[in-house]
Amino acid sequence: MKQPLVSILCATYNQEKYIAQTIEGFLIQKVDFPIEIIIHDDASTDGTADIVRKYEAEHPDLIKGIYQTENQYSKKVPIWNTFIYPKATGKYFAECEGDDYWTDPSKLQRQVDFLESHPDYILSHTAFKYYDQNNGVFLEDQSIKRNLEIQEKELEKLSLNILDRNQYRIQTVTTLYRRELWSLITDSFAMSKYFLMGDTQLFFFASTLGKIHYDPTVTSVYRLTPNSACHRGEKNKAQYRFNLSCEEMRVYLSKYIQDEPTIQKFKTDFGRALIRYAVFDPSFRSKIDESVISSKRKFVLFCARHSFVARKLIKMKWKL
After folding, report:
1. In angstroms, rounded to a whole number, what is the distance separating the alpha carbons of residues 29 and 27?
2. SS3 assignment, position 218
3. How far apart are CA 5 and CA 255, in angstroms?
4. CA proximity to 320, closest of 284, 292, 291, 281
5. CB 287 within 8 A of CB 194
6. What digits encode the pLDDT tens for the residues 182-202?
7. pTM exceeding the 0.70 threshold for the entire prediction
8. What is d(CA 171, CA 147) in angstroms, rounded to the nearest whole number?
């Protein structure tokens, strides 16, 4: 097998219903360069690993499976850095979780062609669609227009906009980036393992190290399941925890930006998220310095942590 130009990287766990569609999205890619497909199964308890093995047997020249016998996530082992990235040999990395999938056969070819001819760009991403698994409907990506406007008018503020979820959006399933991005980040920045999302940190740091290319073509589908962090239905404790981690991360990364109004906004949002999550887990203490929130919110947070009545009132106010 020739040296792969692109490593397609996939992590999966108990996604028996979806993993075949994910792998088929890899196999439909029409490219004029060699690729490899690395799929990590974290000791699934359903039939996910069997499906991966079946595809690996059918495409031994393309697919490399990593099969855990014990769940590594529950042991807090960093799966991507420990198992997936070290096995990847491509010049470019493309990521896709085991419940998302690609729909455009020319996705990789177009992105590689662009990055090969534009050495000042470090990452390429595209538009996508949501698929609401509960209701069986596709939802449009509302960030297409905003992304294009920012690319045209505010490219110098891209780092700032990436941190603001209401502004520039990069969906991991759509990305292709240079493998050296990881070594550059390791040498220059502090990628924190504390936060529940590594992709936003990756995209933020990427935007400080090189240009980011956006293609408004829909190439991929991000699946919304009941447990998805950004599921638009009823929230649960895990989703509030994920949202809090997003706000913690923004405060943490604000040390790399020079925009005081935005920094204050991040601190305000962090305070709100911390109060909301205290309704579910009064014992939780953030590793981000809680003194950054206002005195008023510190008082409300104290009440939420120590009073059942306060938690009930907060639930009513925010309709949790």
Report:
1. 5
2. strand
3. 35
4. 281
5. yes
6. 767 655 555 667 777 778 888
7. yes
8. 12
